[in-house]
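Box 3.1 A note on notation
Throughout this textbook, protein chains are presented in two layers. The first layer is the amino acid sequence; the second is a token string describing backbone geometry. Keep the layers aligned when reading.
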Amino acid sequence: MNIKIKDLCASINGQPILKGVDLELNSGEVHALMGPNGSGKSTLSNVIIGHPSFEVTGGEVLVDGENILEMEPHERARLGLFLAFQYPVEVPGVTVGRFLKRAVDIRAGEGNTKGFVKKLREMMDYMEIDQQFINRYLNEGFSGGEKKRMEILQMLMLKPDFAILDETDSGLDIDALQVVAKGVNRLREGDFGALVITHYQRILNHIRPDYVHIMYQGRIVTSGGNELVDALEANGYDWIRQQYGIEEDSDVKPVTSD
């Protein structure tokens, strides 16, 4: 899967958030997107997946050459896109097992899910999720860490072509973080791509990205490799402003690091 984001602009409640995002992503690659609070990272993930609260005011999101901005979220999911939510919602009355069976049926096609229960139990063991969760309502009464593991379990079962992980590491202790990273890295063995959105270096110690992008004030201001992660860890986001001459609320021209 090839995803090309071209000059993407978006707003919420009339407030511009994305101000011309350009980014290319491919299956087989893992990208990290970092930036301070309010920079537009989660807005970008929501616009890609089609959240109705956000208004696209310009630009394109092309998946294998097709602009998906007019598609409904479920149509984008059927193309092979997946979003692990920053704040997974509770779904009362729908068990984990029932939810995943229906999702896998849609993804793989009715009748092509032989061995579903065996596979689900295998993946639950892999993600260190108690088997009793199969019969619990999705995310209802789950801890923050359990919800995040459940998001990655869904990803493992659905095997998307490209996944967006929106701050999946937030609120996780080190043990839970390692389990979540283990789930993502399992899919890296195939032709799988991901955009890992995060504030912090720690998840990137476990999921090593191929490319790193820094977002600031609604734009990608620089892209490079893991040296950017190390620089941010050492110097903080003030370093980005100083390095690239960014003023608050100024127009920023994207640049690419060496």
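Residues 54 and 111 are 36 Å apart (CA to CA). The chain has eight helices and twelve strands.
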